[in-house]
Amino acid sequence: MQSLRPSLAPLAVSLLLFGAPAQAEFALANVIQEAEALAAKPFDPPAPVPELLVNMPYDQFQSIRFRPDQSLWRGDGSKFQMMFFHPGLFFRNAVDVLVVDGETVTPLAFEKSWFDYPPKLAQDIPNDLGYAGINLTFPLTAPDVQNQFLSFAGASYFRGVGTEESFGLSGRGLALNTGLPVGEEFPLFRRFWLVKPAPDATQMTFYGLLDSKSVTGAYRFVATPGEPLVMQVEASLFFRKAVDQVGLAPLTSMFYHGENTDRPVGHWRPEVHDSDGLAIETGTGELVWRPIANPKRLSHSYFAVTNPRGFGLIQRDRRFSSYEDPEAHYQNRPNAWIVPKGDWGEGHVILVEIPTDAESNDNIVAFWTPKEPVKPGTRIDLAYEVQIGGARTPTHSGGFASATYVGAGDVIGGGNVEGTVRVLADFTGGDLPDLPANAPVTAVVNVSEGAELIHQTVFPVPENKGWRLSLLVRPPKDKPLEMRAFLKKDNASLTETWTYRVERP
């Protein structure tokens, strides 16, 4: 079995026998027992919801609304309340919902009266339909206002937000074979246990049972709303089958276009994205920044990391002028930062970039995958923290890459060398604004095998209180151009490490 729990050997295959003790009060051990027993049986998919709801027009489905006055625990004095998603359209399976109150565990029955329906639709809805997911609320902005801050709906997806952001990117319980030719498998949460919070509680605890053709899983979540939202996650995974690529602590986002890409014809907004980069803190403390893009073809980027300290998808550009969209407010989309707990061992942070022609498609996925292959019978235990929100997540005292630009190297402003590209990276923050214009700032640059670095220069940009790295590079003939750089003064690093990938023509 494999383990990512702090108390167990990192990703080691062992003969550890996990015996869940009998407990009067519901705990993660109860879910682990259920997940382990479920893994010994063939996958039995949950029953689909009626075709009436699956094929319903989008506008009609959107008119089915949960009534906030029916929120769970509304009359019990709790700051935490729970709303529910209605099955249909994208949500094609119902989930079991149980409420844990001390030693009592009670199934929560489906209540049609908790929803407002379009005329005559309610009579066609089965009385035992069930809920598609859960939606947590808490008074973040005012004592008498229940703000939605975390929801789980659809497969193993969840979305969260801090106090000051708008909903954007998503997290997942697990990602399997994302972007691989074998086809992606989407595990789903098929059951939730909601622990009734005390009236003065500032944290909400709940459990989830995950299931798919290849794996089952037991999850414990402890969510603390605020700025940012912080969620502690513990999970035990039991694999029925071998999996080519396991994505642990996965994040999913959208990148349509940005300052580092061409603007689609006819689109007036300067940039459209929920996240603009992947950030990684390695086990040695190195901070890595990789701007993301909307590629012409499916792209996988692999970052070898042993015991990562953190990784996440970040919306670093927080300027309204970069988006000019007063409805979507892309400048307010939250960051998501994963903080592993314990020893995760050797593996890779993988970034998957999928071509998209619309901002409605989530086309960016990032996750960590262990070095050891996952075989039938493998068990993985892991623990991590998810931080959602916060313009400065993750925190960093040094300079950071604030923008990346790419153009041809044989046009005015780019250079005069045919077959090359001009790549520019702006660095701001840290000590950079206080350096004089004649400071001996240099760059350490590496390019991938087969590429030729023809020219590089670093110079101050007073307009943004930073420094610009300009590279003229001839890409390899038969593969993408990979670049890596950071700024330094004397022998001291000034910035994080910037990495970038330019697709082959």
Mean pLDDT: 93
* Fraction in helix: under 10%
Amino-to-carboxy terminus distance: 44 Å
| Unreliable spans | 5-23
Q: CATH topology of the largest domain, anyone?
A: Beta-galactosidase, Chain A, domain 5
Gyration radius from CA atoms, angstroms: 24 Å
Shape: globular
Estimated structural class: mainly beta
Count of discrete domains: 2
At the first level of CATH, what is the class of the largest domain? Mainly Beta
Count of DSSP strands:
33
The count of helical stretches stands at 3
CATH level-two architecture of the largest domain: Distorted Sandwich
- Per DSSP, what share of the residues sits in E-state strands of 2 or more residues? 35-45%
Largest sheet: 15 strands, mixed
Q: Which helices and strands, and how do they pair?
A:
Elements: H1 28-39, H2 51-54, H3 58-62, E1 65-66, E2 81-85, E3 96-101, E4 104-107, E5 115-116, E6 133-138, E7 147-153, E8 157-160, E9 170-172, E10 175-176, E11 188-195, E12 204-211, E13 215-224, E14 229-239, E15 246-253, E16 255-257, E17 272-273, E18 277-281, E19 287-291, E20 299-306, E21 310-314, E22 336-341, E23 346-353, E24 364-370, E25 379-388, E26 400-408, E27 421-428, E28 441-447, E29 452-461, E30 466-474, E31 481-489, E32 492-493, E33 497-502
Describe this structure as you would to a colleague:
This protein is mainly beta. It has two domains: 28-388, Beta-galactosidase, Chain A, domain 5 (Distorted Sandwich); 400-502, Immunoglobulins (Immunoglobulin-like, Sandwich). The chain is built from three helices and 33 strands. It has helices at 28-39, 51-54, 58-62; strands at residues 65-66, 81-85, 96-101, 104-107, 115-116, 133-138, 147-153, 157-160, 170-172, 175-176, 188-195, 204-211, 215-224, 229-239, 246-253, 255-257, 272-273, 277-281, 287-291, 299-306, 310-314, 336-341, 346-353, 364-370, 379-388, 400-408, 421-428, 441-447, 452-461, 466-474, 481-489, 492-493, 497-502. The strands form five sheets. It has a 15-stranded mixed beta sheet that branches. The longest helix is centred in the N-terminal third of the chain and has 12 residues, at 28-39. Mean pLDDT is 93; it is low at 5-23.
